[in-house]
Amino acid sequence: MRIIYISVAVVSITCSLLLITHFGASDYIQRPLIVRSYLKLSGVREFPLFDIVYYIENDNYLKFFDDVIRVIPKTEFIQHGNVSVPREIPLFLEYWKRSKLIDCLNINMNRSKTERYLPVEETVQAMSSLTKYLNGFEMYPMLNGGTLLGWYRECSIIPHTKDIDFAIRIEEHKPSLLEDLQKNTTLFKVKRKFGRVDDNYEFTLIPTNSKKPMIDIFWLYSSQKNSWVGGTDRSGSKYRYIYPRYFAKLYLT
């Protein structure tokens, strides 16, 4: 995989181009991709050998207009003259795999008015901080359980929910994560841990300086037919929650 981020001047206006070329086993280019900033320019040079994907830049993310809309966190680039390269190319590619934007439904649940247990802004900030921390271990959490339901159904956190649910593919697990968390020098600490790495693994984190939100991390296992996370109740009974098989596919076709 090779990525080149290029900044060029067109009609006296600077725009940005992102060239992504994917190489197969025989170094055959499957699909070149150029990403250009979302500017309407007259006389823009045509690139007949490439697909053009426009994007817009927001405060903390980039939004791409491909065959589907894609959103990735802002990433840092290294500048070499007129050429810019993502500082962390593997991280950029992992973001791209998971970048397809799926709109939430924004359904009004008509609940009786109740006090929200988890404040939305502080909770989302904690989720963002934990995601960045996990990315440093090449782990890429996804929303799971009630947290996924709340976002997709209501575009928010369910008011009466008391924790946040993340899932991470077990293939991404590294012992160094738990070792680092147990040093108590990070923004999060381990509150509890269940199961084994090869079976029903799960642990709960909380911010170091606060008691909430509690964030449950469920490790996602996959077979040929489906994916699943485990659960353990207070009696020690184990459960398995089964989903369609999960995979993150790089969108290059």
From TrEMBL:
Keywords in alphabetical order: Membrane, Transmembrane, Transmembrane helix
Domain of life: Eukaryota
Keyword Transmembrane helix annotated: yes
Membrane topology of this protein: Single-pass membrane protein
Entry coiled-coil feature ranges: none
Span of domain W02B3.4-like N-terminal: 42-103
Subcellular location: Membrane
Keyword Transmembrane helix: yes
UniProt xrefs under InterPro entries: FKTN/MNN4/W02B3.4-1, W02B3_4_N
GO CC terms, sorted: membrane
PANTHER family xrefs: FUKUTIN-RELATED (PTHR15407), RIBITOL-5-PHOSPHATE TRANSFERASE FKTN (PTHR15407:SF28)
Name of the protein in its database record: LicD family protein
